[in-house]
From TrEMBL:
Keyword Protein biosynthesis: no
Keywords, ordered alphabetically: Exonuclease, Hydrolase, Nuclease
Quaternary data: DNA polymerase III contains a core (composed of alpha, epsilon and theta chains) that associates with a tau subunit. This core dimerizes to form the POLIII' complex. PolIII' associates with the gamma complex (composed of gamma, delta, delta', psi and chi chains) and with the beta chain to form the complete DNA polymerase III complex.
Protein name: 3'-5' exonuclease
Source species of the chain: Gelidibacter salicanalis
Amino acid sequence: MMGWNFNKKTYPEYWEAYLHHFEKKEKKTLDSSRFVALDCETTGFNFYIDRILSIGAVSISKNEIAVAESFEIYLKQSHFNPDSVHIHGILQHGMIAKFSEEDALKQFLIYIEDAVLIAHHASFDIKMINAALNRMGLPNLKNKVIDTMNLYANTRIKSNFIDKSAHYSLDDIAEAYAINLMDRHTAPGDALIAALIFLKTTALLKKSKSFKLEHYFLKSTRF
C-alpha cells in the first residue's frame, strides 16, 4: 500500500522555482559565480517590529557590474517610523509605486536566483529579508553570503594595517577607495557601493595563492 506523507509542507510555486536553482552542484569560484550586491532600507533595526522599505540590488559577473540589470523595489509601509525618514527619505505615502511584502520578495527571489549575495554588514540585511520570508510562511534564504566589511578588513590585515576588531563603515571604505557617495542611504546606491567595494577588495585578496571564495562566506545569517 502506498504511504502518504501528510506532514509535508507545500510552498508556493515561486519558492519552488527559487529552490530549483540550488539543485546544481557546481563549485562556486570568483570567476564562474554570479554575485548580487544588495541593500535594504528599513524602518529601524528591530527584526520583529521593523519592516523593509526598499530593496536595491545589482548583479556582478566576471568582474563586471551589470548596472542596466539592476533591481529596485519599494514596499508598502504597514509599519511607519517617522524618525527614520531623514535617513532614507522614503515617505509612507507618495508617488513611488509600492508593492506588498510578498510581491516584493517574490520579485527579489526571481532576481537573485542562486547568486552569492554581497552586502555591507550583510547579516542585518539578510536577517531582515529572512524575517519577511518567515512572516510569509517561507524558510530562510539559501544563498551564500559575503560581507564587504570582512573583505575590506582582510585587505587591511594582509597589508599590516593591524586592528582586526575595527569597525569599518560603508562611508569609511568608500572614502578609502574614492567611491562616489552621491546616492548614499538609498538602497540602489548603497548596493552599487557594496558592489564596487567587492570588486576592489577581491582584486587585492585574490593575489594571494591561499585565496578561496568560500573562506568569506558568512557561517550563519539565521534570524
